């Protein structure tokens, strides 16, 4: 008989669980209202107001109507009340601030121009001469404040270097084939 009791309790518990709805996880991240939605919310609040005052549940009703948090609606109403009382047109534009982050340090490129070209061939040379970090010089390159410069002419070749290079190239030609010269195999 005790098994019948346990079975009936399990059946009752199962039936109770069937009617209980599992809570749905909601992402509570604050979403930004578009300007059009802000205008519609403010117009709905104005329509519900009497002499510039809202009723007790008006912000809750409007928040539910637009699927917003009640605090967002209250903030919008508070922001629009002051201009409305002073007969100033209400601007419900975005309240996002402008630039964020570290302020830009002014660049004095005159120092770079004073360095001779042969002393600023690489980024490391420029860093050491200007006493700046390599990161900052690369940032300036990326922003376009500086530009790279390379020359196809090699001005620092001496006559001896040019002769030795030419001699090396001539030595790579096979000696036996003067009619049809070919380079040696580089195995």
TrEMBL record:
Segments forming domain DUF7769: 33-86
Keywords: Signal
Endpoints of the signal sequence: 1-23
Domain of life: Eukaryota
InterPro entries reported in the protein's UniProt record: DUF7769
Presence of the UniProt keyword Signal in the record: yes
Name by which UniProt lists this protein: Os10g0117400 protein
Protein source organism: Oryza sativa subsp. japonica
UniProt lineage: Eukaryota, Viridiplantae, Streptophyta, Embryophyta, Tracheophyta
């Amino acid at each position: 008989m005790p098994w019948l009791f346990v079975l009936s309790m399990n059946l009752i518990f199962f039936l109770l669980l069937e009617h209980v709805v599992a809570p749905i996880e909601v992402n509570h991240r604050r979403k930004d209202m578009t300007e059009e939605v802000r205008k519609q919310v403010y117009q709905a609040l104005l329509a519900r107001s009497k002499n510039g005052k809202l009723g007790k549940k008006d912000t809750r009703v409007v928040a539910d109507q637009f699927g917003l948090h009640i605090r967002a609606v209250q903030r919008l109403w508070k922001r629009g009340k002051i201009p409305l009382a002073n007969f100033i047109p209400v601007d419900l534009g975005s309240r996002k601030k402008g630039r964020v982050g570290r302020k830009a340090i002014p660049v004095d490129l005159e120092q770079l121009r004073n360095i001779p070209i042969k002393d600023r061939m690489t980024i490391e040379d420029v860093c050491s001469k200007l006493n700046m970090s390599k990161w900052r010089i690369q940032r300036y390159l990326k922003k376009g404040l500086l530009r790279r410069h390379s020359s196809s002419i090699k001005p620092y070749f001496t006559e001896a270097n040019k002769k030795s290079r030419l001699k090396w190239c001539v030595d790579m030609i096979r000696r036996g084939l003067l009619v049809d010269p070919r380079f040696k195999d580089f195995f």
